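Retro notes - structure team

What went well: the batch runner handled both jobs without manual restarts.
What didn't: labels got mixed up in the shared folder, which is why I'm recording both outputs here explicitly, each with its sequence directly above its C-alpha cells.

Job 1
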Amino acid sequence: PKVMLINGNAGSGGDAFPWGFKTLKMGPIIGERTLGILVGPATGHQLIDGGGITVPDARLYGPDGKWFAEGYGVTPDIEIWDDPAQLAKGVDPQLIRAVDEVKKLMR
C-alpha cells in the first residue's frame, strides 16, 4: 500500500509527483494543496534594465490529454493541516493519518 504526504511548500517536482500519483490512482494523498507551479522548463532572458524574466517552454499533459492545473496545484484526498504548533511538540498529524491509512489498506 502507498500513501503520499503533500503540503503548500511543494512545487515543481513537488507538484509533478503527486499529480502523477493521483492521476494513476496509486493511493490516497494526505495533507494540504501544493503550490501549483509546474509549467515546465523555463528559459531565462535578460532585460535591458538589468532584470530578467523566465519563460516556460513546455507543459505537462496527463494520459487523459488534460494539462496540469497551473496555479492551483494538487488537492489532497484527505486534508490535514500541517500545524506548526503540533510539529513543535513532536506530533505530526499528517504522518499519523498516513500511518492509519496504510494500516487500513493492509487489512
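Job 2
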Amino acid sequence: MNHTITISKNFKQKTVMAILAIILFVITYLVLIAAALGLTILCGYGAIMLIALRPSLITIMLGLGLGSMGLLILFFLIKFIFAVSKKEEPDYIRIYEEDEPELFALIEDIVAQVGTSFPKKIYVSHQVNASVFYNSSFWSMFLPVKKNLVIGMGLMNSVTVDEFKAIMAHEFGHFSQKSMKVGSYVYNVNQIIHNMLYKNDSFDEVAKSWSDVSTYFALFTLLGIQVITGIKWILKQVYNVLNLSHSALSREMEFHADEVAALVAGSSPVASSLVRLDLASISLERVLNFYSGKIEQNIRPVNIYPQQQFLMFFIATENKLPIENGLPMVTLENKSRLNLSKLKFDDKWATHPSDEDRVNRVKNLNLTSNTINNNPSLSLIKDATQLQLKVTSKLFSKVPYTSRETKNHGIEDFEIEFNTNVSKNSFDKKFNKYFDDFLTPDIDLNDIIETTTTEKELFSEENVELHYNIKGLESDLAIVKQISHKETPIKTFGFDGKNYKKQEAAVLAVSIENDIEQLKEKKQRNDRKIFSFYYHIALQSGKAEEYKNRYKTFAAFTKKGDEELRAIDEIKGMTLFLNETTTFKKIESNFRKLFPKEQILREKIRQLLNNSEYESILVPELKDNLNKYASYNWTYFENESYKNENLQTFFNGIDAYVFVLQVKCRMLKKDFLDFQATLTSI
C-alpha cells in the first residue's frame, strides 16, 4: 500500500489558528498573573502599613483580611496547576496479555504501524465505542503521559476484525504524529480555563471557610470575589476563542485519524464501521431500556450482548438491510433516509465532522489492506461469552433491585417477550409501515370514491414517505421561523442544496409552508383512496357496516384522546413555574389556579379506573399511581417549601393517565387495521 499521510493545508491552517489561540491565552494569563501579583503585594503592603499605623485587634484583623484578598485572587489563578483530572473507571474490567494474547498481538501490530506507544492499561466496558484516556493535569502538556485504552464490548459485538482494527487505528492515530501535540495543548488549555470558570468547589470551600472566621475577613473575601468575577468574564472571552479553534482543529484531527485507520486497515472497513455504529448503539440502548423496565420485577439479564445482536438483525430486517460477513450492512443512504431535515448548518462548535463527510473522504482515499479478515471481532477474545457475562454482571451489580434474589433472563426469554410485544403492537406488513408513526386519518364516511388503485400502489414507498416528508418539513419550518424572527444567532444556512442568508428566511418559510400544504393534500387524497378501497371490498363481502363501526370507534376515541392530551398539556404548562424562582405568594396563587383543573382530571381518572375496558392495560404499577393521585387532594406547597413527594405523586398520576390513553388508542387502532388487513386476505 503506497500511501504517505501528509498534513493538509486546511489542517495546517487550523493548527496555526489553534496556536494563536494558545498564545492569546498565555498573554492574557500572564497579564492577569502580573496584575494579581501586583495587587497581592499592594494588599500586603497596605495591610502592614495599616497595622503599623495603629496596632490593635481591629487593625490586625482588617490587615489580615486585606492581605488575604490578594492571596485569594492569586490562588484562583494558579489552582489549576495542582488540579488533576482523573477518569473514573466504575464499570471497566481490566484485561491482560496472558488472558487475551490474540487481542494484544493485534493492538501491538497496530501501534507499530501507527507509530505510537502501547497503552499502559487495557480495559473492557459495556459500551459501543473505544477510547484512549489518561489522567491529565497542567504538567501533561510538558511531560509524557502513558495512555489507557477502553474497548467497548458493545462495539466488538457489532464489527468484524478488520473494522475493529480500523477503529483501534483511528484511536491511536490521534497520537501518531508530533503535530497532534498541538491538539493536546489546545485541549489542556481548554480544560484549564473550563476548570477556572466552572469547577470551583475547592476554591469556594476555601473562600467560605476564610469568610466564616470573621466578619472582617468576609468583607475582603467579598471584594476579592468581585475582582474574580471580572477575571472570569475576561477568561470566558478567551475560552470562546480557544474553544472555537479547538473545535475546528478537532474536526481536522478526526479526518487525519481516519486516514491513519484507512492506511492500516483499508478504506472499506473504516467506512462500514462508521455507519453501522449507530445501529449497534440504538440496539444496545433498547436492550438496556428493556431491562430498566424489569427492575421492579427483579429480572436481571445474564448476558446483554446476544440481545443486542438480535435487535440489530431485527432492525436490519425491518429496514431491508443486507447481511454481509454475518452483520447488517448500513449505508449512508440508509442513514440519510432517517434524517428528514433538508436544513444544513456550518456548526463551528462541532468537534466531529458528519459521518457523510468522513465516509466520503475515506472512500476517496481508496486504500486497501494486504490482508482481509471479516471474522467477528469477538474471535479475538479467548472466551468472548465469559467476558460478556463479566461485563454484564458488573454493569448490573449496582442496579437497585427490590430483592437480593433476582431472576435470570436470557436471550430465549428476551426473544419470546420481544416478539410477543412486536406482534401485539405492530401492524400487518402489507401496510408497509404507512400507519406506524401516525394516526389513521380523519375520513368522511359519506365521501366514498371509486378507485382502481391496487393495495401495493396505495402503500408504495413514495406514499409511505409522504408523512415523513411532512414531519421533516414541519420541523425545518419551525427552525427557519426562529431564524427569521432572530431567535437564533444563525446568519447563514443551507436548505435543500441551496444557501440562504437569515434575511431570506421569512420568504423561505412561506415556500416551505406551501410545500407542506401540497404534501398534505396529496396524502389526504391517498388516505381517501385507502378507505374507499377497503370499503368496497368490505361491501362485497357483507362487512361494510362492521368496517365503518370499527373505524368510528377508533376515530371517536382518537378525537377524545387528543382533547384529553391537550388538557394535560395545559395542566403541565401551569406547572412550569416549578422550574423558576418566584415569590411564595405567587407559588400559592399558581397552585390555587391549578386546583380546579386537577379536580376535573381526578374525576376522569376515577371513571377510567372503574371502566372494565381498561382492565387489561392497568398493570399494578399504573393502577397504584392512578389510585394514589386520584384518591386525595394533594398539597404541593406548605410552610414556604415544596412537598416534593406529593409533587412526584402528581406527575406519576398524570404520566400514567397519558400512557393508558395512548395504549388504549393504539389497541383500537390495531383492532381496526387488523380487521382491514383481513379484508384482502380472504
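One thing worth noting from job 2: The chain has 21 helices and 15 strands.
We'll revisit the folder naming next retro.
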